[in-house]
Design a protein that fits this description.
single chain; 142 residues; alpha+beta; Alpha-Beta Plaits; 2 domains; four-stranded antiparallel β-sheet; 10 strands; DUF4265 domain-containing protein; DUF4265
Length: 142
């Protein structure tokens, strides 16, 4: 499914739309299956509505947030990316490498302790190893 993106004055993100895997559930309704790299306010597991356009689904609206949170990390030190990714996965997070080098999208499922994940990322950020964005934080993780 295609999600529109709003670019900032500097042209970020470098795309005007993002394709995200969505599993159809009913006519015009689907479940987000992948971790968004640029879309804000949507996480894996969310239910969304869409409309068909030119043979593909185009996002309409978020119907139901399902408790996952989405973080995006950008690494300044390549050697740390593998280690941090492994630590996040050991905590129960899913990670996906992005279309931009050193960009990592992180899915934090509802059952994972967000404070522990956030603590890990904060420590690495304080060491100037990475920077991060909380693209979508669920009510459960607030």
């Amino acid at each position: 499914m295609v999600f529109p993106l709003e670019q900032d004055p500097d042209g970020y993100p470098p795309y005007t739309e993002e394709g995200i895997w969505v599993r159809p559930l009913a006519d015009g309704v689907g479940e987000v299956l992948s971790v968004p790299f640029f879309v804000v306010g949507i996480s894996k597991g969310d239910f969304v509505s869409y409309r068909a356009s030119a043979g593909e689904g185009r996002f309409s609206e978020l119907l139901s947030a399902r408790g996952h949170s989405t973080l995006r990390l950008i690494f300044f030190r390549e050697d740390a990316e593998v280690r941090v990714r492994r630590e996040l996965e050991q905590l129960g997070c899913e990670t996906e490498a992005g279309p931009i080098q050193s960009l990592l999208a992180v899915d934090v499922p509802p059952e994972v302790d967000y404070r522990v994940v956030h603590g890990l990322i904060d420590r690495e950020s304080a060491k100037a190893i990475l920077d991060y964005e909380e693209a979508c934080v669920s009510r459960k993780h607030r």
